[in-house]
Specification:
The complex is a heterodimer of chains A (177) and B (178). With 177 residues, chain A is an all-alpha fold. Chain A contains eight helices and no strands. The chains are: A mainly alpha (177), B mainly alpha (178).
C-alpha cells in the first residue's frame, strides 16, 4: 500500500462506502438483466424446464420398470396403495427381464453355433466330394486297359513282379505266405 | 433457478463475451445442479449454482483453448498507484441524484450508463468480477461467496474491494455518476 494513498479515516466507513457503491452498481446491472431480449429469456426458460425435468427423472428410477410391464401387473393384481406389494412386483418384473435377456443371449449364441456347424458341414461335404471324384478317376484309370507302352516300361514290369496281387490269379490265390 | 437465470446469463456474458456461449453455459449449469444436487437443501442451491456456473465457465474456456485469455483473466489487476489524485471516498461521496421523472434523453443516458457499467464490469479480472457480482448482485454473504469461489473470506474481501476501486475509478474517468 502506497503511503501517499489517501484512505478513509475509518475502515468501517470505507467498507460501508464500498458496499453502497457495489449495491448501486448491482441495481443498475439488475435493471439491465431485466431488459434481456425475449428470445434469450425464452431460451433460459426452456433450459430451466429441461433441467427440472431431468431432475424429476433422476428421482424416479423405480417407476420405469413398473410402467414397462403393465400387463403382468394387472395379472398379479397389485394394490396401488401397498408399497410392499408394488416393490415385490417390481422385483419379479426385474427377474423376468433378466431371464428374457439371458434367453436372448442364448439364442444369439445358438445361431452363431449353428452357423459355424453349417460352415463346417459344407467344408466337410466339399472334401468328401473331392475324395469321391478323385477315387472315381483313380478307379477308372486302374480299371482301364493298360496302354501297350506300359508292357515295355521296365519300372512297370518290376512293379508287377514285386506285387503278385497285381495279377488277378495272384489276387484269387490270396496273400503270399 | 427462475430468479437467478437472467443474472447468471448476464454474469456469464461478461466473462465469455458471447451470448450464445453464455446461454449454453447457463443451461449446462442448470442441468448439472438439477441432476447432481437436487437432493441437497434448498438453502445450498444458490451457492452451489454459482459454483457450478463458475466451473462451467472455466470448462468453456478450457474447451476453447484460450490459454492466454485465461491467464489474463485470472491475473490480479495492478492497483493504480501512479494515479495519486484518485480518492475513493471523494468519488463515492459524490454519488447523488435520483431517477425521478425520466425523459427520452434520460432514458438514453441511462441505457448508455448501463452499457458503460457492463463494459467496465466485463473488463474486471475474473476473480474480482466473480466476487463483486456474488457479493452485491447475488447478495451472498462473505462466507457463501468464499465457499462458491473456493477461496478464503479474506480473499473475497480483497477481491471485492479491488473491484469496487477499479469500477469507481473507471466510471469516474468516463464521467459516470451513479
Amino acid at each position: 500500500m502506497s503511503p501517499t494513498r489517501r484512505w478513509p479515516p475509518a475502515e468501517a466507513e470505507a467498507q460501508a462506502l464500498e458496499a453502497r457503491f457495489g449495491l448501486r452498481v448491482a441495481a443498475r446491472l439488475h435493471a439491465g438483466a431485466e431488459e434481456v431480449p425475449h428470445d434469450v429469456s425464452e431460451r433460459l426458460r426452456v433450459a430451466r424446464l429441461q433441467a427440472v425435468a431431468r431432475a424429476r427423472q433422476a428421482r424416479q428410477p423405480v417407476a420405469a420398470p413398473v410402467r414397462q410391464t403393465a400387463p403382468s401387473i394387472q395379472l398379479v393384481h397389485v394394490d396401488p396403495y401397498s408399497g410392499t406389494l408394488q416393490g415385490t412386483v417390481a422385483m419379479l418384473d426385474g427377474d423376468d427381464e433378466r431371464d428374457e435377456a439371458w434367453w436372448r443371449r442364448l439364442g444369439i449364441l445358438a445361431l452363431v453355433v449353428m452357423m459355424g456347424m453349417g460352415l463346417f458341414g459344407i467344408d466337410w461335404w466339399h472334401t468328401q466330394e473331392q475324395i469321391r471324384t478323385t477315387a472315381e478317376i483313380d478307379a477308372a484309370l486302374l480299371g482301364d486297359a493298360l496302354p501297350p507302352a506300359a508292357y515295355t516300361d521296365p519300372g512297370f514290369t518290376e512293379f508287377v513282379a514285386s506285387h503278385p496281387l497285381a495279377t488277378p490269379a495272384a489276387a484269387e490265390a490270396g496273400p503270399a505266405q | 433457478m427462475q430468479a437467478v437465470e437472467k443474472r447468471a446469463f448476464k454474469r456469464t456474458v461478461y466473462a465469455v463475451r458471447d451470448e450464445d456461449a453464455a446461454l449454453d453455459i447457463v443451461q449446462d449449469a442448470m442441468i448439472r445442479l438439477a441432476e447432481r444436487y437436487a437432493d441437497r437443501p434448498a438453502a445450498e442451491w444458490p451457492m452451489l449454482f454459482q459454483r457450478i456456473l463458475s466451473n462451467a465457465t472455466m470448462d468453456w474456456f478450457r474447451h476453447q483453448k484460450v490459454r492466454k485469455g485465461v491467464m489474463n483473466l485470472f491475473s490480479e489487476m495492478e492497483s493504480g498507484d501512479g494515479e495519486s489524485d484518485f480518492d475513493l471516498l471523494e468519488t463515492l461521496e459524490d454519488q447523488s441524484g435520483s431517477l425521478g421523472f425520466e425523459s427520452a434523453d434520460e432514458t438514453f443516458s441511462r441505457q448508455q450508463t448501463l452499457l458503460s457499467i457492463e463494459e467496465e464490469v466485463a473488463k474486471l479480472p475474473a476473480r474480482q468480477r466473480e466476487a463483486f457480482l456474488m457479493r452485491y448482485w447475488e447478495e451472498m454473504d462473505v462466507a457463501e461467496t468464499a465457499a462458491a469461489m473456493g477461496c478464503s473470506e479474506g480473499s473475497v474481501k480483497t477481491h471485492c474491494s479491488r473491484a469496487v476501486h477499479a469500477l469507481a475509478q473507471a466510471l469516474k474517468l468516463k464521467g459516470i455518476s451513479l
